[in-house]
Structure formats: C-alpha cells, structure tokens
UniProtKB/TrEMBL annotation, chains A, B:
This is Methylmalonyl-CoA epimerase. Residues 5-140 form the VOC domain. Belongs to the methylmalonyl-CoA epimerase family. GO terms for biological process: L-methylmalonyl-CoA metabolic process. The keyword Transmembrane does not apply.
Length: 146, 146
C-alpha cells in the first residue's frame, strides 16, 4: 500500500447544528456542506472543507451525529459528551486491493466494504491494530472498479 | 478568523520508532521526517507527510511520544496505552491576532504562545471550549511577525 490522501478526520458531535455554528463563527469555515443522513451507518453527516496548500482542497472535517439510539457512535459520545476526534480516513485507489493488503498483515477489518459518506466504498480497521486509531479506508472518488 | 490549513493531526504514541515502522510498512508512507526532541513541550516529535490534492503537501501526522516522566501526554497514554488521536492543528497567519480572537470569544488559551514543532509560534485551546478537541493554533511558516 502507498499512503493516500488524508480525506477527512471524523469528529463526533452531539449536535451537527451546533458544530456548524462553531466551525462557521469560531473557526471561520467558509465551505460547510449540507448535512445529510446516512442511516446505513447510523449517523448524520456534515462535511466542513479546510483549505489545502496552493488553493487545493484540504482534508475535510466530517461531523458525525448519531442517527438514532442504535448509532455506533453513541458509546463514544457517552464517554465524550462534548464530542471529539472519532476516526481518520485515508484514500486508496481500490478498496478490494486495500482490504486484501490489510488482511495479509493481520489487521482486523470491521465488516465488508460498503458505501460511505462520499458515495464510494469504505471499510474500517480495528483501532487496536492501528496504533489506537479507528481508521477508515475509502476508495477515492472517480477511481477503482466498485 | 478565517479557517486555515489543517497543518497536522497530533497522534500520541508510546513509541515513535514503532509508529514509524507502522506508517512505513502498513500505511505505505514514503516521507517520514527525522524524529527530534522538543523538551520544552515534553515530547519527542516525528512528522509523517501525507499527499495532498494535485501534488500539494497534505495534512501531516505529528507523532508525539513522551519526552520524560513529566510529559503532558503521559496522562493520555495512561488512558490510551496504544496511543491515538491527541490534537488537531490549524494554521493562522498571525498568532497574536488569533489569540485575541479566541479570547474575545471566551475560549481558554492554554499558556502563552511559544515555539512549536515547526519552529513557529503556537498555542493550544482548551478542548472543552472546542467541541471536545484539544486544538493547536499555529502560525504558518513564513508568515506573521513573531
């Protein structure tokens, strides 16, 4: 595997609405996307763009709020009521090749590849196999053969 | 304030050496900088580059390991023995203007601006005022009047 773009950092929040106000009024974000529901993942999602180098697009902040009482991030928010850093997400050119590479290395993949917040296939790798960080692997938009 | 580049995410680790092997051999990082000590901050530091869009430099991973038994990240590692996401760092053009802006908003600045791992002035903002995230504010290299 070759290290890909850090697509986003996933930030859990008890309220996407409050976080939008924070990123707009405190941090000065100028591009905040429309929130949307991702019920298959149990979250509501809102992307905040950060500027990259030389006018490029930088790593996004992915705000995630529980979709319902079964959300996989409810436990995180119970421990961190204000929210906080939940996961990081790196891009790969092909999700199936990436999955095979992690598996060869004995890394535990959490479930099968599925469609993520950017509309491309993703999977998560167990934080205990990744230096304590819940890590999302995401096929780059426009690439791969999904 | 206008949202600046996400310069790096700070990742605590019990061993920078082990983390270098992880980022090189598992994640496929190709540019891993020389580790160095930052005793004033109580950490050893190693930057791992990630690729940005269109050949630009992306957000870095800042590996931080305790420098000694007084390190401010010892508590984090006691709770998270494998390491994990510790802070995020955004760039600003001028550290003193940024400090004044946060203070007007009632955000708690942790100490005075001081020289950070990239050689420019930085300060941290209390995670309880920042959606649960310990947030570093860093003057962009080559900018400002420090």
């Amino acid at each position: 595997m070759k290290l890909g773009r850090l697509n986003h950092i996933g930030v859990a929040t008890p309220s996407i609405n409050d976080s939008i106000i924070f990123y707009r009024d405190v941090m000065g974000a100028t591009k905040i996307h429309e929130p949307f529901d991702l019920p298959a993942q149990g979250v509501k999602v809102c992307f905040v763009d950060t500027p990259g180098e030389n006018g490029s697009n930088g790593t996004q902040i992915e705000l995630i709020e529980p979709y319902d009482e079964h959300s996989p991030i409810n436990g995180f928010l119970a421990k961190n009521p204000l929210g906080g850093q939940h996961h990081i997400c790196f891009e790969v050119p092909d999700i199936h090749i990436a999955k095979a590479e992690f598996e060869v290395l004995g890394k535990r993949i959490l479930g099968e590849p599925r469609i993520g917040a950017h509309g491309t296939p993703i999977f998560f790798v167990h934080p205990k196999d990744m230096g304590g960080m819940l890590t999302e692997i995401m096929e780059s938009p426009g690439e791969g053969k999904h």
